[in-house]
Write a structure and sequence with these properties.
The protein is an alpha/beta fold. It has ten helices and seven strands. The protein binds uridine-5'-diphosphate (UDP) and magnesium ion (MG). Uridine-5'-diphosphate binds next to strand 1 and helix 3.
Amino acid sequence: MDISVVVPLYNEEESLPELFAWIKRVMEAHQFTYEVIFVNDGSSDGSWKIIEDLAKDNASVKGISFRRNYGKSAALYCGFERAQGDVVITMDADLQDSPDEIPELYRMVKEEGYDLVSGWKKKRYDSKLAKNLPSKLFNATTRIISGIKLHDFNCGLKAYRKNVVKSIEVYGEMHRYVPYLAKNAGFKKIGEKVVIHQARKYGTTKFGLNRFVNGYLDLLTLWFLSTFGKKPMHFFGVVGSLMFLVGFVSVCVVGGAKLCHILEGTSAPLVTSSPYFYLALTTMIIGTQLFLCGFLGEMIARSSTDRNNYELNSTINLD
Ligand code: UDP
Ligand code: MG
């Protein structure tokens, strides 16, 4: 099979028939063998009924339905798990992404050797204040932290080589950072293609401004996991040691002052009147806590089931 299209959807009943007809038109015009996996993320409207109806007439329609709403990442994860096409394309269900982009995305993965091609909504038809401006900031931060030069990380329209989606695990709200996940799994050829974006025709957006808070926290998590996930002590140990160093210097200052007074025979003020005393106290306590976190982290990392999971590129004479 050439292409699997994975479509996560939550209450998008009006768009679905139009979306599938459009995908089908494009696929047939280019003679691709394909499947469209609709993942119904606990919709409370008639979305699932529409998918069932579509599947009656089209063998290429496949569907998964969650009993409740788990989020876009969960939907993508389940779709990825079942995708069989050589190239996997993800697309939002709301008709904001154009199926006409599929052939070129497919070509970039197949012929230009990209592992992942992300859409770039260069001209975007969403509210400026709520979406466009904050997302510029979001993308700039993500570019710096992930080291991937993409303009539009969160674009719903993306194409993947099959083994990319089988090697990564999208969870929580990490769908915003799939390129970063792919990079951490060792896929280096990540590119982008300017795609046509359209205003939402039906229904409403499912993501409010809180996505920036969550997105920022997720980015920190990913950065931490990719850098120190397998060696947490290298993070906690270094910060803990710095704390101890500050504490040690502070103790020297406090102790030195006391000693001077004793040698000079003058009456020394109480150590608690010096700010260094408090600095020493807090940094020593925090330093100890950080070391304990480091040890706990190491124990968790050691007992994690994928502690020895490595992405293999190829092997010779070995199964
Ligand atoms: N979506 C989903 N589960 C959710 C929220 C959204 O499957 O909990 C789907 C939604 O139906 C759409 C896609 O994710 O197909 C993108 O959502 P939306 O268009 O609301 O995001 P926006 O384009 O406004 O960023
Ligand atoms: Mg949308």
